[in-house]
Write a structure and sequence with these properties.
By secondary structure, this protein is an alpha+beta fold. The chain has three domains: 117 residues, Beta-Lactamase (2-Layer Sandwich), CATH 3.30.450; 118 residues, 2-Layer Sandwich (Beta-Lactamase), CATH 3.30.450.20; 178 residues, 2-Layer Sandwich (Heat Shock Protein 90), CATH 3.30.565.10. 41% of the residues lie in helices and 29% in strands. The strands form five sheets. The chain has a six-stranded antiparallel beta sheet, sandwiched between helices. Strands 15, 17, 18, 19, 20 and 21 form a six-stranded mixed beta sheet that branches. Strands 10-9-13-12-11 form a five-stranded antiparallel beta sheet, sandwiched between helices. The longest helix is centred in the middle third of the chain and has 38 residues.
């Protein structure tokens, strides 16, 4: 072909390619730029001054580091090369095709490279990447890891969260099971469960691990097999359930404590009813006594429910009972160190205080305008260990002291119930001026907290 004809042919070819708006680059056998279309500006920073420059010196707008190697490969094998590449910002995708460039007499003159944008691919990939990012963030926030297990090849894949839950460094694939931080006591059951899952196609398992800092954590895995053309694969999740396990343990303890308390309360109610029936002389008296005693028990339970503690302050017990009968403050003197009573002890002591209060309201200091009541307690050291000593002293009662003709519920509770229930030593005296009750109990039987108590060493 004559030179003028060749120039005309090249001009027509360039005009054709320009009209298609396709990015085309011509490179000669020495890998130097021979020509390009204007649309090439999408993939390279080129000007006419770049004609003749080596391909490796050109500045690309695409992520295609293999371009020069692909051109050399084509020049050697003459086999076309096709590759999908992304823009430098990864917001666009191009299909790159490299073809031999031959002359009219079929002589090899170089390589022609075309770059055609793939419509919609970048938007789809951007959306996919955004979805994957959100999914990964959701896993991190929820503390839920995703895993996949190929039941045919025994290969596994873990998401980053699964590695973190195990306390293991992230890797291309999970480490051997010998490196997993299973608690030794759980290893046999763990491995057995996964063997069974291979047959059943499902796993629901809880186990413990030892973290690098020595802490023990509970993990749980749930997975189901997915049958596909590629084989049997199980997809599942792993999460940390330590807080749930701790809550379950607390709930079991609370349930046990609740059952214990209910049994105790029912036993106390039964005892109150039986003794009240035995001591009452009429239905009216029985109803009155039951109402007062059960109200005392209810007030005690109300305090426990309100505070959420398994103990009750002794002074609160005394004041609650006196407040219930509207005792005048100027008639009372209540004094003693702070002391928390155990649940059972608080119930029994509350009933004893109720009986003394009821008697004082009917016949004693609280029935007289000039009557006085002094309730005092202290912690004393004895040869039998520390003990709680409580004295109920009434004064200003005009009636002559006369002991009841029969032993009622209150007297029986103080003289027999307290010694039996709490190991107490008691004395109930009907003195001139009012009743005096002395109750002394082992501190270990009644106190919920023995630390920081004020001991009275006065003989």
């Amino acid at each position: 072909m004559a030179t003028s004809e060749r120039a005309s042919f090249d001009s027509e070819l360039n005009n054709l390619l320009e009209s298609t708006q396709i990015a085309v680059v011509f490179v000669d056998n020495d890998l130097r730029l021979r020509s390009f279309t204007r649309a090439t500006s999408q993939v390279f920073h080129l000007t006419d001054a770049d004609i003749g420059r080596p391909l490796g010196h050109l500045t690309a707008r695409i992520d295609y580091p293999e371009l020069e190697a692909d051109v050399r490969k084509l020049l050697k094998s003459l086999a076309p090369v096709e590759r999908e590449v992304a823009s430098a910002e990864h917001d666009r995708r191009f299909l790159a095709r490299l073809l031999p460039h031959r002359s009219a007499n079929n002589a090899m003159e170089g390589v022609v490279a075309t770059f055609v944008e793939i419509p919609g691919r970048s938007e789809a990939e951007t959306a996919l990447h955004a979805s994957e990012r959100r999914f990964g963030e959701a896993q991190n926030l929820a503390g839920v890891g995703i895993w996949e297990w190929d039941l045919d090849t025994d290969e596994s894949w873990w998401s980053p969260v699964v590695y973190r839950l195990w306390g293991l460094p992230e890797a291309a694939e999970p480490p051997p099971t010998s490196e997993w931080r299973l608690l030794p006591d759980d290893r046999a059951a763990y491995e057995s469960a996964w063997q069974e899952a291979r047959e059943s196609g499902a796993i629901d398992l809880e186990w413990r691990i030892v973290r690098p800092d020595g802490s023990v954590r509970w993990l749980a895995a749930t997975g189901r097999m997915q049958q596909a053309e590629s084989g049997r694969r199980m997809l599942g999740v792993t999460q940390d359930i330590t807080e749930r396990k701790q809550t379950e343990t607390r709930l079991r303890l609370l349930l046990g404590e609740l059952q214990h308390r209910v049994r105790n309360i029912l036993a106390v109610v039964r005892s109150i009813v039986v003794r009240s029936v035995r001591k009452a002389s009429s239905m009216e008296e029985l109803a009155s006594h039951l109402e007062g005693r059960l109200s005392t028990l209810a007030r005690t339970q109300s305090v426990f429910s309100r505070t959420g503690e398994g103990a009750m302050d002794l002074e609160e017990i005394i004041r609650e009972e006196l407040l219930a009968v509207a005792a005048a403050e100027d008639q009372l003197e209540i004094d003693g160190p702070e002391l928390k009573l155990k649940h059972e002890a608080a119930e029994t002591v509350s009933l004893a205080i109720h009986e003394l209060t009821t008697n004082a309201l009917k016949y004693g200091a609280l029935s007289e305008p000039n009557g006085r009541l002094k309730v005092q307690w202290r912690i004393v050291t004895t040869s039998r260990g520390p003990r709680l000593s409580l004295v109920w002293q009434e004064s200003g009662v005009r009636a002559l002291p006369v002991a009841p003709a029969r032993s009622g519920f209150g007297r029986e509770l103080i003289e027999r119930g307290l010694p039996h229930e709490l190991g107490a030593t008691t004395a109930l005296e009907f003195r001139r001026g009012g009743v005096r009750a002395t109750i002394e109990m082992p501190l270990s039987e009644v106190s919920a907290d023995l630390s920081g108590l004020q001991m009275d060493t006065t003989p």
